[in-house]
Structure formats: structure tokens, C-alpha cells
Amino acid sequence: MTGPRGQTREQIAQTALRLFAERGFGATSLQDIANEMGFTKPALYYYFRSKDDLLEALAAPALDRLECLAEVIGRHSATPAARRGLLAELLDLYLEHRAVMTVFIGDRAALAHPAIAVRSKQANTQFHEWLAGPGAEFAARTRAVAAIAAIRSCVVAFPDTPDDELRAPVLDAARAALGIRPGHIMQLLADK
Could you tell me if 39 and 65 lie in one domain? Predict the structure, then answer.
């Protein structure tokens, strides 16, 4: 949304994101956000119907991309190169939406929000199943969960580490969890 209303809505969202990160979703009220913005609480209702509406607006871009990625992988075979590609795409998504993801991963109240929890769980279940393979044994399913957890956890655990420094070690950890070797040129050629 552009224009003054869109700019104000974005400023409110960024203020809320900062407060959710500092205090937690459950401990931050709309009044807290209004006070930070220099607004009255009723003025916030012009931009967001509720704190839940605000949380959903913050999560929507990341969840939309997560669901899009889940849809795309469903049309492809899980070759080693494709699996490396999914891990890289997930890392890119988490890095692009690092502030939002940090709130959701670190705050159970935010992650448990019904609209967010359902969307996130569905996409992550698709990733786990695709990475593990159809009818996979428990050990393979565990490795798939561990690979995605490595990405999520590292992005949150090292919030001040620049993306370019974080990228290679995180992808190596995620690939190691799956038992995939790094994408050296000989390995990429062998995958074809």
C-alpha cells in the first residue's frame, strides 16, 4: 500500500515488530504500540483491527513465500541438487524475513497464533516429507526436520551475523543433517 496511510501502516507494523521482539507478543498491548507511535489506541484501529490482525500482517509476506515454495517443490523430484536448492531457498527466506522469523521462532504465543500456526505447519510438513522422501523411515524424517531446524535456529541464534557470513556454515549444517555433500561441481554433474 502506498501513500500516507500505507506509510503509517508500515511504521506501525515495524514498531509492533520491534516491541514484539523486545517484550514478546503476549506482553505487548495495542496501547504499548499506540504509545510508541504517539497515537491513541482508537487511532490504531484505523490501520489494524486488532493485535492479531497486526501479527498476521507482519507474518503474511513470509508465510506467502513459504507456501509458494512448498507448492513449487511438490512439482519436482527430490534429487540431491533439488534438495540443496530447497535448503538455500529456505535460508534466503529466513534471512529476508529475519526480524519476523525471530519473533515467531522465539515467541510461542506468536507462533501458536491459529492463522500462523496452521499455515506454517502445513508448509513445513510438506518440506519435511519432500526432503525425507515418500514413505521414508523415521531416521530420514528426523534428518529432514533437523535440516530445516538448523536453518531456523542459526538465523535466530546469530542475529547480528551478516547474511554472507552465515550462509555457507548454515547450509553446510543443513546439508550435513540430510547427509548431502556440499554442491561441488563434480557432485552437481553426478546429479544429472
Answer: no
